Amino acid sequence: MATEHYIKGYPRPQFVRDDWQSLNGEWDFRFDDANVGERERWNEQLNGDLKIQVPFTYETEASGIGETTFHPYVWYERELQLPADLNGKRVMLNFQAVDYTAKVWVNGCYAGGHQGGYAAFSLDITDYVNSAPGAANRLTVKAEDSQSCTQPRGKQRWVDENFECFYVQTTGIWQSVWVEYVSPSYLKAVKITPDLDNRSVRFEYQTQLADDNLRLETKISTGQKTFKQVSLHVDRAWLQLDVELTHEANGPWKLQSWSPASPVLYEVEFTLYKDNQIIDQVYSYFGLRKISIEQGKVLLNNTPVYQRLILDQGYWPESHLTPPSEEALVADIDAILAMGYNGVRKHMKIEDARFLYWCDVKGLLVWSEMAATFEFNDEAVENFTNEWTEIVRQQYNHPSIITWVPFNESWGIPQVYTNKLQQKFTEGIYHITKAIDPNRPVIVNDGWEHTISDIITLHDYEEHGDALLERYADSGSILGRAASFNNWKYAMAQGYEYRGQPVMVSEFGGIAFNTGEGWGYGEQVSSTEAFIERFRSIAQAIKDTPYICGYCYTQITDVQQEVNGLLTADRSPKIPLEVIRKVNLSLTE
Q1: Which among 340, 420, 339, 341 has a CA at the least distance from the CA of 376?
Q2: Which architecture characterizes domain 25-175 according to CATH?
Q3: Glycoside hydrolase family 2 immunoglobulin-like beta-sandwich domain location, by residue (predicted)?
Q4: CB 176 within 8 A of CB 11
Q5: What number of other Cβ atoms are within 10 A of residue 23's Cβ?
Q6: Residues of 102-133 as b/e, b for ≥16 C-beta within 10 angstroms?
Q7: Cα 161 vs. chain centroid, distance in angstroms?
Q8: What is the three-class DSSP state of 566?
Q9: To bridge 351 with a disulfide, which of 205, 274, 355, 471 should be the other Cys (CB 3.0-4.6 Å)?
Q10: Hey, do 25-175 and 303-471+498-588 end up sharing a CATH topology, with the first three levels equal?
């Protein structure tokens, strides 16, 4: 069941305004391999020789182009028709994601830009638009990409052909574009921090102020019942308010926490008044839930939770990293839940905000993982840090996110096992993440060679359950760096010791059928029976290792040349979902 103010297709469902206009659809498009567009002033008249369906990138069939050759510079243009009467409102242009650098012009005038392929950004374009009734406005976007490994790129290849587990690049606009209309004074963002133990919630408001006599009202409700309504005077850009959730004027009410079993969400309505007239109204929500770590266990709402996760790279055959529809996102979540998983590790991708919304609504736990760089130098450090901090702030309010994962398998920090500079970088990212969000665990280097990390995670694609069980029988050997696991990696980096953190196997399995195409981990299987036997054997070995408190299976779907999904790339089950579900639940219930 959706939240009360959910709007189908609205790109940012945790911060909803009713007054908006989608700019998805057909745009003019042009390649600029020689990078002459700015010099020749394409921002004044693009003369695009192609059409593209935004938000799908030119590399995808869904875009209408379907060319996978890398092009470093691409241009977009479309007409923007504004409402007949803006009534003094500001025009905000929003991009959910453009890979990698975006430059934006309105009616030929430069309006701003952004660097970072996975973070959302907004521009106030009011000063550049023609707001006369019926006037046409021209919106032009240049996207600059590269094959550099100093930019966060995740699973996007940096050579001309796919290799190993790296796939066709994503260039340009790959998530939704839209405009919304706001008063000169408006609410820019709200950071929501529920406190389960103290039965309260903290709101940190960021406002754009252009008026006096402003008042902000915050109303908390479930459905049609209002539980709390508080008001405060707005006299500065940043405001903070702590709200107790224990009583209302008409008597006490029962609090309900958010969990996979009961994903209760509280609706929030923020209303900004000027002289008692409404000038801005935003709808959001929160879940009252707590993530903590005690005695080697991860606790959800003060109760240990065994995490049954599945790895999800978020690719589709026709649209690559861009979901083909909101229904496709929901279908993936439903399939994950149907297979008995209670969570998902979003691998090397910052997913569409609507995916996280539906995880919030349906109760699916999420590990949010940053797309990796693949070099270590000052430029990579700066690029990574800037974008990661943007993402943590933007995703902070989602109750489904229970873990941050900035690094994976030493990608971008290849000598972290011994290199002090790379180790200090991981420490810095850990602490800056904690400075923004002290309430979620951070896994600094998922898979191996951990420095400081709230959870110790291991990747192991052993095919035989008995070998897996034997390998992890001696926790002191594995976690104390006396022995490598998976025959070549150590759990901890040199100079760092295991300090009793929870331990999880966060990649295993990767079983592929023998079809003669693509690859999986280990020997490919030739029958459903062989698949199920191997799947059950390795999963049981992990569950039978007492100090391991969760797992993440690789993976939900096939992705291009990697054919080790439980579903095919077009989401057809290889194994009946209920069979996978039975194995998962028999291990942990």
Answers
A1: 420
A2: Sandwich (2.60)
A3: 186-289
A4: yes
A5: 20
A6: bbbbbbeeebbbbbbbbbbbbbebbebbeeee
A7: 26
A8: coil
A9: 355
A10: no
Residue with tokens 């035989």: 464
Find out whether 294 and 37 touch, Cβ atoms under 8 Å. Answer: no
Give the residues across from 442 on adjacent strands: 404
DSSP codes joined into one string, 238-291: EEEEEEE-SEETTEE-----B-SS-B--EEEEEEEEETTEEEEEEEEEE----E
Give Dmax over CA atoms of the chain in angstroms.
74
Q: At how many degrees (to 10) do helices 326-338 and 353-362 cross? A: 40
- Closest-CA residue to 460 (of 431, 483, 494, 430): 483
Peptide bond into 229 cis (omega under 30): no
> What's the burial of 88, exposed, middle or buried (CB within 10 Å: 0-12/13-18/19+)?
exposed
pTM for this model (two decimals):
0.95
User: What 3-state class would DSSP assign to 31?
Assistant: strand
Q: Which two tokens stand for residue 201?
A: 């919630």
| 303-471+498-588: CATH number | 3.20.20.80
pLDDT, tens digit, for every residue of 255-311? 889 999 999 999 999 999 999 899 999 999 999 999 999 999 999 999 999 999 999
Per-residue pLDDT tens over the stretch 316-336? 999 999 999 999 999 999 999
Domain-by-domain residue ranges, the chain?
25-175, 186-286, 303-471+498-588
State how far the Cα of 548 lies from the Cα of 555, in Å rounded to an integer: 20
Q: Domain 186-286 belongs to what topology?
A: Immunoglobulin-like (2.60.40)
Nearest residue to 279 via CA among 377, 211, 197: 211
- Express each pLDDT in 536-564 by its tens digit: 999 999 999 999 999 999 999 999 999 99
Rounded CA separation 250/248 (Å):
5
3-state DSSP call for residue 386? helix
